[in-house]
Amino acid sequence: MSPNNKATRNNTGAKVVTPVKKTSSPTAIVSPYNHPSNVKFNVLEKKQRVHNIIPLQYSDEKPFGWAFEHFFDAKEFLKSLCKNETTYLGGEEFKPFSNLSPHWVKNSSLGVNLWIICIKDETNYDESPFPVQCHILFANKIARALLHHVLWPKEQVKVNKSIIMDRSTESELTKIINSHNQYTSEITISDSILPGDSELESLI
Questions:
Q1: Suppose 3 and one of 7, 54, 81, 183 were both cysteines; which one would form an S-S bond, judging by CB atoms 3.0 to 4.6 Å apart?
Q2: DSSP code for 134
Q3: Which of 161, 51, 167, 172 lies closest to 109 in space, CA to CA?
């Protein structure tokens, strides 16, 4: 993903991981890495898509969260990381954290059609907030889990260098996230779909 001039990249190194072969069924799938030498490749083949994970930081370099590009197929996994429940994927165990929230960002100065996981500041003392010192490690762990799960055969999952947002970009994302939180808090359940008889409800 190519952010605009409002965001700058720091010099933090990022781990780039390589995809593995998809084996979703007993039928073997031939990868580009084991084709017989007599097979000709299509030079006009579509360019390989890269699924990017971008650690985000506030202008003061405090961790803000992560941006995910081309992650629509993994949205349920990203949401599960924010439910304060233990999540398993690709042989990796993700501990529950109480202050992560997922957001779909259609348009922003960072890019379009992004999933954002934000690290919220508000936590209770009896909850388990995300350890911000593991900001980059968490991005690497997500990448490993997705590659081992082989969600996207023959496509890369890449952890980019952190982006330090300027105050304008920071304010824009905060406004988008706050508006989403307000909409969620305003959702009400109508009387027509309230729980019914407790004995019947227990059957389902």
A1: 7
A2: G
A3: 172
CB atoms within 10 A of CB 97: 20
Asked if 135 and 63 touch (Cβ cutoff 8 Å), the reply is yes
Q: Are residues 71 and 115 in contact, defined by beta-carbon separation less than 8 angstroms?
A: yes
Q: Based on the structure, what is the number of domains in the chain?
A: 1
On whether residue 36 sits in a domain, the answer given is: no
Residues 6+ positions from 195 with CB-CB distance below 8 Å: 201
Could you list the residue range(s) of the whole structural domain that residue 118 is in?
9-20+47-181
Within a domain: residue 126?
Answer: yes
Taking the C-alpha atoms of residue 129 and residue 123, their distance in angstroms, rounded to an integer, is: 7
Phi, psi for 177 (deg, rounded to 5)? -65, -40
Model-level pTM? Answer: 0.66
At residue 115, what are phi and psi to the nearest 5 degrees? -95, 135
- Residue 150 dihedral angles phi and psi, to the nearest 5°: 55, 55
